[in-house]
Amino acid sequence: MNVGKKEKINVLSLFDGMSCGQIALERAGVKVDKYYSSEIDKYAIQVTQKNYPSTKQLGNVTEINSVDLPKIELLIGGSPCQGFSTAGKELNFNDERSKLFFEYVRLKNELNPKYWLLENVSMKKEFRDIISNFLGCEPVMINSSIITGQNRPRYYWTNIIFPFPANKNISVADVLEIHNAEIGQPQPYPRNYKELGLKRVERIEYRTDKKSNAIITNPQKNLLKTNDGYRKLTPLECEKLQTVPLNYTDCVTDNHRYKMLGNGWTVDVISHIFSFIT
Questions:
Q1: Mean pLDDT computed over 112-129
Q2: Which structural domains are found in the chain, ordered by start?
């Protein structure tokens, strides 16, 4: 690994969320001079500023003027995925949120950073090819399951050259606070969902690989089958599955914690990539 970079770099993180990028850079040993964040969710900003108070918040990505920034060595981002996801309506680039991808392209072209990375969800090849054409490279698919206890396939477009991460063989059981889950058993939606205070969901996934389903923004879907029935994953368990420091998100309500953890990056995947910045 090329860890231990001596020079400090300036970073611009678009759609920064709760700043998983900063955790990953710190974990990878990459020294940061100034970290600029583009984010509009006040709760995500609150979490970021609690953990990284020197973060320079820039607000809406559409209002960022590249001439106002110093030299940026690293541009990162995970543009909103609601228009790309195979789990969503697949609205493609007609979705206003997905059009924000072109703000990433704009700033990449204007800033010409030495390194850049874009993360996004599983999507149709035709959508993926459009992104690849604009960025000039093919993505690498990495499933977080090789590093943590959740199934979370994601695409990574980057000019950082890195080897595929090694499998750590972690199961969801390794991160549980309450060890009563029937790990590896099918997880249909509970028949007594109303008694559990849960709302009915449309799509149920079944897992037999000792992993959890991908952490998502809706805690009603982050379920485990247990010896006593069903329960939601706790915020701490979601932090562990996303390899976020424990209690990193504890300054906001649980609902906001679930939302930003579901939207966030699996930090150790990003850290692995960043550790090959030279």
A1: 92
A2: 9-166+266-274 (3.40.50.150)
